[in-house]
Amino acid sequence: MRINLRIPILILFFLYLFVPFVSIALWSFATGWRFPDLLPSGYSLRAYEIAADPSGDIVQGVITSTVIALIVGVVATLIGSSAGRAIAMHSFRLKRAFQFLVLAPLIVPSLAVTMGIQILFIRYGLVDTILGVCLAHLIPTVPYVVMIMTGTFANFDRSYEEQGQVLGASRFTVLRKVTIPMVIPGLSVSFLFAFVISWSEYILTLLVGGGSIKTLPLVLFAFLRGSDLPLTGAASIVFMIPPLILLRFTSKYLVGRSSSMTGLGSV
Amino acid sequence: MGVTSQKVTPMTHPKKVRRRRVLWLILPTLLVLGILFLGGFIFGILQSLGLFSVIANDNSALSLDAYRAAFVSDKVRSGLVLTFRIAFLATSLSTVIALVLAISISRAKRFQKLTIALTQFNIPIPHVVAATAILLTFSQSGVISRLSNEIGLTDGTSDFPIITNDPAGFGVLLSFLWKEIPFMCILILGALRGPVTALDEVARTLGASYFYRLRKVIIPYIFPSILSGTIIVFAFTFGSFEVPYILGQPYPPMLSVATYEFYTNRDLINRPVAMALATLTSLSIAILVLIYMRLTRREGRVK
């Protein structure tokens, strides 16, 4: 009985996951799609032509979002992984308090924090700037990186680094040739999470960017309001592509013999 | 090769050097989270208490007016109930479904790579896109409604049940599940790939039945992953803004949307109320998570 049930359950699950993608894809190519029709009455690339306009909202949004998500991804991965190493491999005073500080942003909604820092950001001229948005995006991203890298460094064998040092390598060479290659799965997954969280962030960007830093989520919201569904569909498709490309390169580290997700299992 | 056996001791740095090195490792994170996160959080609380008012020349002193205003608001009270119900359902349903899926995927002999790849596909999709896709699929004129109209199950748009922007928050729940089932599933699959397979194998050769192994070997092993996964999912769905903003109904709004409405209200007097609501939301999540951890810790020890 169990075995017989398994396949229908999986099929139902994957239908639930993939039918929504089909709806956005169909809408993005549709010229008209009246209600009872199962499929659009005509297809065109109109929405994509609008999307590809170099001075249009979508292209500009892609550029802004990419710049911000790349900066946030790199910075969060750098600072979060060193904290992860400290937690996993060193004992220090107030370590529990530090761990608590790292986990707290996962519990406290970003809306609460952003409303609070907005007044500080206004005072220091950080609102409406890319720098301000990047700083705000570090709040939800760094905790994920620290968790993932704590998990990675928990299984890290220090003796390899020590061997490198004994053989006369400089600390930088050891880092480049020994440490980084050993933790590359964790670093990749960390970058994936940080990039994707920043790439998807709406409310932080809206409040800190003041509407003048227009990332893709803001553009998509504007289209949803305007109820041009083909354009909404095309923007959604464009919005999905960079995260999926990143997933293509990191998926082997998500579920693998050395899964980097285990770090997330240690709240 | 001989190096491995050699006892290398760079660990015996003087204590001071090691302490300084640790400080450098944690300093950037400490600064970012200490200033931006903790600073933002504390400033939010101060503003909820009537301090640092944005209104010029307002010399207001410490007061609990904003909290009083939040508590008496019907919008807030029914919003809290709705938010809790949706976050609870999203967390429990995604956990149970993901557990069933992860175990059946890990036991599958065929198409395992394919099913894992398909499950991962949703993880990097932005929540805004997820909510849009759910809207286009499950609304009264969405793809499912068209399908059911085609096969004669329903007649027209108004005959199809309202499951997006609906009072019960079903659309919001559908969108959360769409994102969180794959997340929990990958988290559990990651844990299932560890040493547990060898333990399971040993138990099997010793003659343990499948259900016995599930109860005594597999579940206890993946329990920590499930525990932190549920905390992440609950806190996220409780505080999430984008999804209820797109798929929710105007009244009662979920807490995050209500907070945002107070915050962006033209009358700046509502700002402290927004801050109070945000503080209450954080506090509710923290208390619920603490209770949950207390309960499950006891549970975990028994195992």
Strand/helix succession of chain B: HHHHHHHHHHHH
Low-confidence stretches of chain B: 1-9
Within CATH, the superfamily of the largest domain in chain A carries the name MetI-like
Main sheet summary of chain B: none
Number of helices of chain A: 11
Tell me the span between the first and last alpha carbons of chain B. Answer: 43 Å
Structure class of chain A: mainly alpha
Q: What's the CATH C level of chain B?
A: Mainly Alpha
Structural class of chain B: mainly alpha
> Strand content of the residues of chain A, in percent?
under 5%
Dominant shape of chain B: flat
Largest sheet of chain A: 2 strands, antiparallel
CATH topology type of chain B: MetI-like fold
End-to-end Cα distance of chain A: 37 Å
- Cα-based radius of gyration of chain A, to the nearest Å: 22 Å
Parts with pLDDT < 50 across at least 5 consecutive residues of chain A: none
Descriptive account of the structure:
- The complex is a heterodimer of chains A (267) and B (303).
- Chain A is built from eleven helices and two strands; from the N terminus they run αββαααααααααα.
- With 267 residues, chain A is mainly alpha-helical.
- Chain A folds into two domains: 1-44, no CATH class; 57-265, MetI-like (MetI-like fold, Orthogonal Bundle).
- In chain A, strands 1-2 form a two-stranded antiparallel sheet.
- In chain A, helix 2 crosses helix 11 and helix 7 crosses helix 8.
- Chain A is globular, with a radius of gyration of 22 Å.
- The two termini of chain A are 37 Å apart.
- The mean pLDDT of chain A is 87.
- By secondary structure, chain B is an all-alpha fold.
- Chain B has a single domain (75-302), classed as Orthogonal Bundle (MetI-like fold).
Which short descriptors sum up this protein?
heterodimer; A: mainly alpha; MetI-like fold; 2 domains; 11 helices; B: 303 residues; 0% strand; disordered N terminus
